Fold each of these.
Amino acid sequence: MAMLEEHPTLLNAAHDWGSGDFETALGAASHVGYKELVNYLISKGAQTNIFTACLFGHIDIVKAVLGKFPASLNAKGPHGFTLLHHAIKGGEEAFEVKAYLESLGATDTKIPLY
């Protein structure tokens, strides 16, 4: 965290693991369910997205995005992790999002990136 204080541009920096598999610190913390780190990064101004909304169970955001962009249901996050994967990592807090995504046909199958 000291490194982020010294180099604030790292906050939204992304690493390409290959074949367009980009991952930010927020993306990494989100897909493993590390909510404390996610909250810290957001408090510093990290760019949030629907994957993080799924992790935290923000059903209003998820419904709004999928209502306008329904193909996002099948969006690939870092390493091919799905929206449903993020909702599952969110635990009880994200149960409503999990149920909503499943009602739309989402599965927890990792989407291959390459």
Note: Residues 2-103 form a domain with the Serine Threonine Protein Phosphatase 5, Tetratricopeptide repeat fold (CATH 1.25.40).
Amino acid sequence: MIMQFVKTSRFFLYSLFVLYAFFFWLMLKITLQYLPIKNDAAFLAIKQSYIHLIHYRIAFFVHVFSAILVLLAGFTQFSDKLRIKLPVIHKRMGWLYVLVTLFLAGPSGFIIGIYANGGISSKIAFCLLSVFWVSFTFIALLKIIKKQVLSHRKWMIRSFALALSAITLRAWKYMLVALFHPKPMDVYQIVAWLGWTLNLAIAEILILNKFKNENKTSN
């Protein structure tokens, strides 16, 4: 019974790794569409009313090229084997995740969120996503500085759940369009919220299950 559970758990983890690697590859392909840098490439084709704004243009390209680093670095933070056997890599990739999120991907995401498609609802959703993402990451940093490891891990789970919105937002978009064929702006309004709020809810469930027997004083 125990061995069967272990094998099932390993298979589940390996499946998640393969699935994440696949979506990371897709995100990398999307990122590479903007090289060499062009003002009308891919998504920018429908943002021509804003691309002339220098702050929007800078924020967009900063976000595109930094977010992929966050996805790469963030995934390494949740491997117990890596953290125990290769703590130096864990720490360096953790710093990469934190610094890129706090100073590049997070702030640039807020700026482009102000110009999001889908009206005021989408703008609020994307701006809140950026605020929460930066805030959770900063709290996680403070916790590890104070040696509050368990609490640090909880806040990193929340932070990475929001980072994953880059993937889940697109997944929901493709699914909604395939199933219901809604209007483009309606899609933006839905996925702008659904892309990260559900991630955060799942993160809280994972935290409750993973740390339910841990010392509560670490919060």
Note: Residues 1-7 have pLDDT under 50 and may be disordered.
Amino acid sequence: MDDITTLRTVATVVSFLCFMGILVWVFDRNKDRRFDEAANLPFLDE
């Protein structure tokens, strides 16, 4: 196998894994609750 082909294959797999990680992070339902709590923090201190 050619070195450049191996490099391209590894880059493609790493890119795909990063893409899947971003999708999991975006669609995480627990994140919404944490962001809502963080958004209300300035209003809790009087």
Note: The longest helix spans residues 3-26.
